[in-house]
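Work package 3, deliverable 3.1, input record:
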Amino acid sequence: MVNRAYGELKIFAGTSHPELGEKICNYLDIKLGKSEIFKFSNDNTFVRILENIREKDIFIIQPVSTPVNDNLMELLIFIDAAKRASAGRISAVIPYFPYGRTDKKDQPRVPITARLVADLITISGADRILTLDLHAGQIQGFFNIPVDELTASSILANKLKSIMKDKDDAVVVATDLGGAKIAREIAKILNTSIAIIDKARNDNSETVKSHNLIGDVAGRDAFIVDDEIGTGGTIESTVEVLKSNFVKNIYCAATHGVFSRNAIEKLSKLNINKYFITDSLPHNYNKNTQFNNVSIATLFGEAIKRIHEGSSVGELFKKNNI
Ligand code: R5P
């Protein structure tokens, strides 16, 4: 694949999720680019690109998973190395964008760290961003370079569709008002209705309280959907509300499985039949349990191909063929 403007397509992966990099390259039928990444004894990260990338179209895959600050710094250093190696164009592929929840000044004297991260990525030399289900779509506007935000909605909806018995018996549940958009997208594909939970966080302790339910779930199968699962508190609290409203079976689909603290243990104990979680982040849950991995590699592979060839990424979703 050669783009006349930028030269050969080359894909590299940082250390946060090389498996995803391999899968994307398999889809595109190209080899993952060679690099070496290590830390010196003083904890400084070092990245070296081990092949010629002069004037080439470079994509660096690095979802910013735990350890977040190390993986973020590694991405910045990787971009810098590519820039200094005279890459023709550098795209930062960030399936999970870090600090997405610190996206506004909602308390006195707090940072907007998502904006800071956007500045760091831009200053390091990225020409464009490819990402997935941002916590808030407005984060796109923190960049002054092009951002392509993909969504896993149709991939997750198709998984839910495969287990759905009767559309009148199913309802898609958003865990808070912010999640209504993704819930609506999925409900549209499933041709069913939605319900929304009124969720509150009182402070920065990451504890949540789900209160009222808007919508009808009694006697129906609920598909809880969310952009990310962190501590699992939101899902736990949502399940409590659904049960007290006489729901039948519960399934859950989320784009990003952050699974912080004891989330897996907590989620395993909930009365949820199946979880569908994408591989935007690496996971270590036992795949023989309720947890089902849903790959976004084809989606990203196709988007990268289209960006490289200069064709529409939006068309990808219109056709709903991923
Ligand atoms: C928050 O507003 C998001 O959409 C998720 O609901 C949240 O990130 C989940 O976090 P946790 O699992 O820690 O409750």
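The pocket of ribose-5-phosphate is lined by residues 175-176, 178-179, 206, 208, 226-234 (CB under 6 Å).
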